Fold each of these.
Amino acid sequence: MKCPICRKEVKPGSPEAPFCSERCRLIDLGKWAAEEYVISTTVRPGEPEEDEK
Amino acid sequence: MASKEVAVEVYDSSSIKVLEGLEAVRLRPAMYIGSTGETGLHHLVYEVVDNSVDEALAGFCTQVDVTIHLDNSITVVDNGRGIPVDMHPEEGVSAAEVVLTKLHAGGKFDSKSYKVSGGLHGVGVSCVNALSESLQLEIWREGYTWEQEYVRGVPRGALARTGKAGRRTGTKITFKPDTTIMDAGVFNFDTLAQRLRELAFLNKGLKITLADEREDPVKSHEFLYNGGIAEFIRHLNRGKSVLHDKPIYFEGPRELPNGGMLTMEIALQYNDSYGENVFSFANNINTVDGGAHLSGFRSALTRTINACGQSAGLFKDVKENLTGDDVREGLTAVVSVKLPQPQFEGQTKGKLNSDIGGFVTQFVNDKLTEYFDKNPAVMRKIVGKAIDAARAREAARRARDLTRRKGALDSGGLPGKLADCQEKDPERCELFLVEGESAGGTAKSGRDRRYQAILPLKGKILNVEKARYDKMLAHDEIRSMITAIGTGIGKEDFNALRLRYHKIVLMTDADVDGSHIRTLLLTFFFRHMQELITRGHVYVAQPPLYRIKKGKNERYIKDDKEFTREILKRATENVGVEYEDRRGLVPLTVRLEAGELRSFLMSLDEFQQFFRQAERRLRDARVVETVSNPMFIVDSKADFTEKANVKALFEALKALRIEAEMVADETHSAWAIVYRDSTNAERRIDVELAQQPEYKRLRMMARQISKHNQAPFTVVRDSSREVQKNWRDLLAYVKNEGMKDAQVTRYKGLGEMNADQLWDTTMNPEKRTLLQVRLEDMVECEEIFSTLMGENVESRRRFIEENALDVRNLDV
């Protein structure tokens, strides 16, 4: 799989997995700390309300 | 290399001054050459070679040959001017003998003959002579050959003219280190090669050869670099992936205020690593501790990169200026200066003290700015790399802040929001991470406080424009979570033995928002506490989505599919459906019952879901109904290139009085239908639509239901018969029947359950189902996360709609 930060290929089972390096791990942790990871759901005007499926 | 004009003064015995005697060297060798071991031994060679390089710097020598002989003696030959041979006015012996026997004797102390000189300790070749059991000197100068021999520094006779030399000039010194003084006696080829290569880089155009006669055949290397230190940079960066192809290189002289010339040569190139690899030299001496030249270079680099980045507008989202560390990440550089009478600090000349920092700074500022102006693409890459470094530095600072123990912690060092359990044995303890304060409150009342702990996490945020819901884990929440779990994070800090709960249960709403929080939490665990997952400590709770109550009978249902199945099961218990199959020659009445009926109705329900998805795109139910009809051949791209296929669909739409047009789709060399929806916006039925997954699934389901989908339908129960005009009405009617007399509750969130219900359905170990999160599931989760975080808004939107991030994506 790929390092979430720099997208370099990371071998499974490598000590820093899923990151390629301690540096990328820290950058990622910094992003969590800075609340940069946000999942947004768009509320689209005029969209029919989700009714009972 | 310095030009010929540099040294025009007469180089003869008058320029050699005698400062001190030789005896001390044999007594305290380490004081003069550093050590009597390996380093000192090789140092002897460098001392002799440096004499030749000085001739090259002065512009009189183009080649130096070094040979290691069988007996570990060394010969150094150059094609310089040859050491002066005339009589020294003060000493009464030849100038050459003075150079070979008097400490601190040499042309270098008189800056008239050598404007620039290296020489490792200024002790010169006399030291080498003192520490050699034998030394042979041969000089070619003024048309003659001159020779002299020494034993342990003592001449065996005066310098004598022994033959003709013609036009040849130069000096040859052969010496064998005195093994009664030196502890090491065997030369290492690679050590010598490394320094000689370095000298060749630092003195472009100078050819230096090294031959080892101890090897058979003779091992030899030739070092000649016309590119100088720019080639040095290429050598240092070999095998690395570089940010820009060509090293940046400048060279230039500067008149010094006290006379003399400062020559500056700088080369640099960035690679994609995070390290810094910078070498500085003054008069060919590797100043390992830097000094004025290096700090001058560094401050200019930081200043120029900041200034150029600023004026190019590259710092829009960077708060502070880039630091020196930022701009040196991935930097390979060589700074080489040459100046008369350099001042060094320390015995090993590790640091240059001469007051030239300002000149170097100004020189680099000017040249680098000019280079960046001419090469904006390279500048952008370098600035970009430094910005990345600054971000990484900032991230690391914040990351440390995240794991530091401070903030709202109770007396036991635990977060204040945590409702801990009484049990202390981690193996029996469970931590529920609950989305939302209100659900957290319910969970606190409903839990078994002996072994279940609750940590509420903040719910959703509606952003200011009210255009979207944002889901994230707040800084404090991540910190609370890390503290509560107890293991710490990171390669060094993570310790599974400190885990406080062996079951960590994610309890979030069973809707899209809940799945977003769950995705965030799982991604965080996967990235920073992966061992919790590999050891099987992470679980996902399964709160119900529906409650169906009929009389005293109560049933909780976890998802829509199961709900539909349940409703249809209830509805079809004593009901049949009839329709007339008109596809054969004779119309035939078909009756569906029990299992067959249920599976037809389940398919209809699924079809309805795809129908709704398609309706969102096509905005007209009649159009969806028509394009989903298996009678039309409109599945693949090829189908749309066939005019007749599209025409048939077009006619059907026209029959429904939909204002449509059939047009040529030139992009795909196919046919397309264009119509207007209720808002008068243009919609297309074309190849692009056919490639959408939701369209493909719609067509697939339509084929699956087509066998029985022949309206009208008659619902038969006991003696009553109800006619439903189409599949939609049939499905609604039957569902309604299934819910008759039952009380149906759909939980929009955990908070809608009371404490007892939450305990009964989701937390009670006797009744609940927990899904254990496995590492394999996480690869998919990580993919989902990356897509959600990705730059591509359209693919993200589509992804969310298609996957709706159902928790069951994680079931296996």
Amino acid sequence: MKFSGTLLEAYRDISPPGTVDLIYRLGEKLRGRSMLHVNSTKMGGGVAEMLLRLIPMFRELGIEVRWEVMTGTPLFFKTTKSFHNALQGDEAVLTEEMFEEYRRVNHENATKLDLSGDMAVIHDPQPAALIGYKFKEAKWLWRCHIDISRPQRKAWNFVKPYVSGYDGAIFSLPSFAQRLKIPQYLVYPSIDPLSDKNRELEPEQIDSIRTGFGLTGDKPLILQVSRFDKFKDPLGLIAAYKIVRKHQDCKLVLAGGSASDDPEGEEVLARVREEAEKDEDILVLDLPPDANLAINALQRSADIIVQKSVKEGFGLTVAEGMWKGKPVIGGAVGGILAQIVYGLTGFTVNSIEGCAYRIRSLLNNPDLARKLGEDAKEYTRKNFLITRHLIDYLSLMSLMMGVR
Amino acid sequence: MAEFKFIGCIEIKELLGQKADNEAQLLELIEDVHPDSIYYHMHSYFLRHVYLSGPFPNDFANWAAIELRDNILGEKLANVGVSPEKSLEDIRMDLVETIDKHLSEMRFVSPVSRGNSFHFMKSQIVEVPLGTAARALPEFIRALQNVHASALYYHIFEARIRVRKGRNDFSIWLDNTLGYKQLAERVERIDFYMFSLERLRRKILDLCLQELAE
């Protein structure tokens, strides 16, 4: 029986040819099976956002999906925040009391949550210890969304025995792989081409949003969209822009989220604002978290998109820019290297000077900029859209269930 | 008459947790790594870069040239041949000999990384029958225009190297079932490693259309 849904059909003309049919075929093998996702938040954050979009697709394929959210105490979340930082290599204090609270809250959740399902995907360190409560026949995967390429040893040594109990682990980049005896799979994150942040916009809508920000389109526009965080290096980008301005007229827009709960971020934002006040062609936009349409319109208005990070998890703003057919310049770190194929879908740079050079080069070579943008869009279509993400999960489920 | 049934494939990528930071470590790991990892790094480039032909056709060559800035080794590794006659162990030996010879000609091998590490991976292929079939050449052309690009990967690279059928699936069917001997030979003679999957699709379609016109 051929299965044809409506949600997935919306992706037929956007994803690569044959993709939706391939998804139906993969789904047919798994119809009636059940899948469980467990994470620690229903709202906010990339994981929840991704699950909200993927789960209806699984359901449309006839896969029974449940999403359980664990609950915890303030000490538990303080502990898991410390784990999060320590696993990403930052300094964090971890005490025996914190370890005990982590074990206790996981045990409590195991008694409250419905952990049944043919396959479970347990997201990030917070619920990792639930593995002790898995049903014998079920297959469980630990999905790690964070950069654990250089974890603090104490934190990793605590989490590792739990992770080792899973049937497999999923990481977002090859460099995040660990010495583990279980299989480690690679699944890149994705963007949704039909979300407000990425869907096609009418030219009038783009113009209206752009002019609403006071951007008249009189000069080439260089854009970076990211939090005001030192690792996103907005100050480095301003320095690169200043070099460019010696040769070429252009405008720089730095658009990012509010940093009110992050003192370090506030300091970066203050310094960025200080620089912007000295130059009327630098515009700083502190946008609310739901400003998805505004970000979409800004990206579509830009001539060049930059993500000049000096440290990066995956950096999906790069794929967002590429999807809009723009030439993207990114710092040569983390997932940016997986998205930008040097010289083919954009340029990666290692310094302020390198960034300035590539901006100048692209401003002066519109044909090259256009070609990079076109290829970047096709590369994103194949590699970073949500349909590919769905295929990866379906394939892993086929593998785990032994339905090849 | 036997139909040609198109099969697509999904690659599940597995990280092996082994990495190289220079030419010597690359050699050491290539000598020991699972043969599926050799296959992955010599071929999966095509599945990842469906639309683009990169600087070189395999991961080892690209890493040497881009991350190690060792263009000579990159060029040499790009020319390590893959053919139906060669097993993965033969390919491994060719890679080892190429790097070994290059190392013996190097005056100095930097012990530290000059770029990003090479992370060894392997993959498992999940076959997905696409429900598309052809009985004659015009039908085959119509189907080939629309199938998922992974079907080209499956019927060409998987058939020739991993499954070791000796030829690609398209040529086997065109020759044995339809009797298009010359067309089958033309398709098999394509230098598959020089094209992206989308360009391969175009190339094969052009050859088929040419055959029909003749």
Amino acid sequence: MAPAPDSRLATYPFTSGATAYVRELDIPLPDLLGRHAYDRARSRGMKRVIQAIEGRIERDYEIGTDLELLSYPIARMIVSCVGDNYLIRRYALAEAKAVYESLKAEPLDFLLVMGEEFGMRIESSDQGLSIHFADYVRYAHRMRDPGWKLVNRRLSGGVVRISEREFRRLLQEAISDRIRGGLPLDLPPDLDVCDALSAHIESVRDALGARKTEFEIAGAADPDAFPPCIAHAIAMLQEGVNLPHSARFAATSFLLNIGMGADEIVRMFSGSPDFDESRTRYQVEHITGREYTAPGCDTMKTYGNCIGADSLCARVSHPLNYYRLRKRGAGGGGGIDRPDG
Amino acid sequence: MNERTKNFLREKFKEYYLEYPIQLPPDFEHREWGFILFDALPKIVMRRHTSFHSRPEALEYLRSMAPAHAFSSVAYYEHPGAGTMADKNWLGADLIFDLDADHLPDAPGSYPAMLARVKSETMRLLDFLTDDFGFSEETMDIVFSGGRGYHVHVRDPMVRTLESAERREIVDYVSGAGLAIKPTSIASSISEIPKETRHGWSRKINRWIVGYLQALKDPETAVNKLQELDGIGAMKAKKLVDGGLLDSVSDANIGRIRNGEIKFLAGVPKSLWNRLILKAMQEVRASVDEPVTGDIKRLIRLPTSLHGGSSLRVVPLTLATIERFDPLTDAVVFSDREIAVTADKPAACDLRGSHFEIAEGVNTVPECVGVHLMCRGAVEYVKVL
Ligand code: SF4
């Protein structure tokens, strides 16, 4: 008999404990995908994804720990079947946020166990918490506040002092990595998972489509419709010119907002002769991990990144609007003049 | 470099690889190897994607090919010999630091002075690595690079899987980049200085400042010493001393200064504290070549190999031996037996404690000097005498 389920497993379904528990339940995948008994796990999985699209995943303990827990792998399968980069990002982010909310209420002892889950070497003593610097920088290097920089920390004998609040932030990063990791999943080829979940996938697609129209970012990226500032930044990157951070950020967040994935973006930037893939990837992923909106024209102008403004620019206040207008114009038979030919 | 010279150098390097003990890096079977042979020089042709399965195999390669330059990857791979980086499958990498005269902001011109300067940077780095980062000596390999600097290989398993961006945080740490306690200007308001009790940079800065102040013992030398600080000339220095600076920083007050307190010393101008912090940062930081540490797939010179651009040995050192290590003597491996070389134009070098001047035309020099200058491309080989 399986051990009594702990509702924490459902709250933290990505932990090795939760995975082991699910394995012990020993439910064959075809059953999970098809049997009536798991209907609610499947629809809950779909709901997780739809809630993520809408912005916030709510816990549902009503359906019982087991089903809530099982809905997690199902949600991941659904996301993988849809295979949309924007969805993957948005979903992972929403899951991580939900976890962080729960984590806020947990006692230190539990946090320490969670730290162990991620292989963090962390110790608690009268003097507070100290963590091995390697575990620290792995997550802290992405934080934008200079207070997180290793150089500004008390580092001695290889350990960094951190507060409990900071520890929660580090855990949040580790958790979003874990959740994003492996997505999209390599689904077993012999079983048609996506077929079995097709109804749920359809609903997710609809929700995603609605969200995308709302933001008008549907369809494949169309470089011809890029505003001059972004086209310029990309061209410079491809030439290997060392662009200021604000310009790189603008280009990357713009491309993410129009639905490109991190891999595609890295590829797009990779034209340069001394292209440093790992560095670019880091920068792109750093931005991908969050929900940034590309800066508007005002900000672009402030940082000197509004370069090559054309007549269409006069009608927009945001590079994304430029893109939408031009894309629509192109689709609608070239209703918008193209001063640059 | 003509064919005759290349042949001679190849023979000399071969002798070296036969006679001297050669160390292979730990886990060498999982590293990629790369070599530059004398044949194509001065063109640099790197033969990479090589791997060795055993020590004899690696030694056999070095002895038969006698490469001008030998490298192995900082990275560990599942398939180090695979032809593309993707197929190799990266498993991890040592943490590497490269300290090179080329990257120092104000490196002196002469080779010996330059090497001395890089050595002091290396000592600072080692202080960070052992003290702040807590690496034990057994996990670090410190080597003279054979060229213009030093390499430190940290092989601690804890750091192996760190990615580039994370390694750059370590570089920023040792070089003090992004330090929040840096005053924005000399005139910045300041109510305390970094405390001795706070680990990390604070403590280092505090200790440097306290050490500096304690050295301001008598008024005569103090006036001179104060002028070491940027922006303080003879006039200002004298004014500070006359204004009672030495009393302010007397032993009785040092305890409170260690604690970061400076407000009680109303007579000491704020600008002096800001200048001291800035100077302390300069004196504590280690200038390392950032891209090297961030590159987790780089090839790095093999310790105990020979550097084909200098003929110097890439010498393994320890925390104890680096202090007294003199590359221009201790990294020289060739003999004093005389050989004849020819030069197109005058050249000079310092080796084994002597200065050598080469005139245009044929010169007789000790073999070690001849080989060194041949590697530098300054002379060609004529014959053994
Ligand atoms: S006006 Fe806006 S869209 Fe046009 S180039 Fe400037 S920043 Fe880009």
